[in-house]
Amino acid sequence: MASTSDLSRGAFLRYNGELVQVLEYEHRTPGNLRAFYQVKMRNVRSGKLVENRFRAGEALDFVRVETKEYQFLYREGDNFVLMDTETYDQIYVDAVIFGDTAQFLKESMNVTISFDGETPIYAEAPSFVELEVTYTEPGIQGDTATKTLKPATLETGAQIKVPLFVNIGDKIRVDTRTSEYMERVK
User: Fold this and answer.
1) CA triple 12-76-112, angle to 5 deg
2) Which residue, among 8, 43, 12, has the nearest Cα to 26 in the 3D structure?
3) Per CATH, the architecture of 66-124 is what?
4) For the chain, which terminus, N or C, has the lower number of CB atoms within 10 Å?
5) Residues 6+ apart with CB under 8 A from 137
């Protein structure tokens, strides 16, 4: 059985009968008290955040999760249709599993899907995507010295804030984890 010393970000645990993923953890040793791990976890089924304090050396029930690379084909209702890049089998995955990163998915992008047995439980989009700006207000000439941002709509329909110098038709790199503009791509 594994213990708290084996904790890592992204690890899956069975906690109170539910499958959770570790988002953050911190090892603390306060003054004259025993050391403990403060762990922030997300329930895989409901998406709710859970925080718990584990004693140092406490046994934890880690869950082995298989990950596989898939290619995003298209969206059908509330599901995404994905294709296995090796066997060309297609699967349907609920859009909720992707969370906020679903808005940045474009056809033929590769995604990573984690399975608990045959059930997809977690999906991870690429960390950075390159998308075209389809609509944004024109920037004012010479107003690029400040860090002022304006709203922009991307080709996938996602809306983010971009600097004033970004125009319609520009390709930009977006961080899907934070939904932030990174840079303009040539």
Assistant:
1) 30
2) 8
3) Beta Barrel (2.40)
4) C
5) 150, 151
Q: What are the tokens at 34?
A: 């025993």
Do residues 161 and 151 make contact, with C-beta atoms less than 8 angstroms apart?
yes
Q: Where are the domains of the chain?
A: 2-60, 66-124, 128-185
Q: Is 87 left (phi over 0), alpha (psi -120 to 50) or beta?
A: alpha
* Span 99-151, pLDDT tens digits: 888 899 999 999 999 888 888 888 888 999 999 999 998 876 666 666 788 99
The class level of CATH for 128-185 reads: mainly beta
Closest alpha carbon to 160 in 178, 138, 142, 139 = 178
10 Å CB burial of residue 117 (0-12, 13-18, 19+) is: exposed
Q: How many CB atoms lie within 10 A of CB 88?
A: 8
- What's phi and psi for 73, nearest 5 deg? -95, -60
Number of residues that this document lists for the chain: 186
78 φ/ψ sector (left φ>0, alpha ψ -120 to 50, else beta): alpha
Tokens (6 digits) for 74? 């298209």
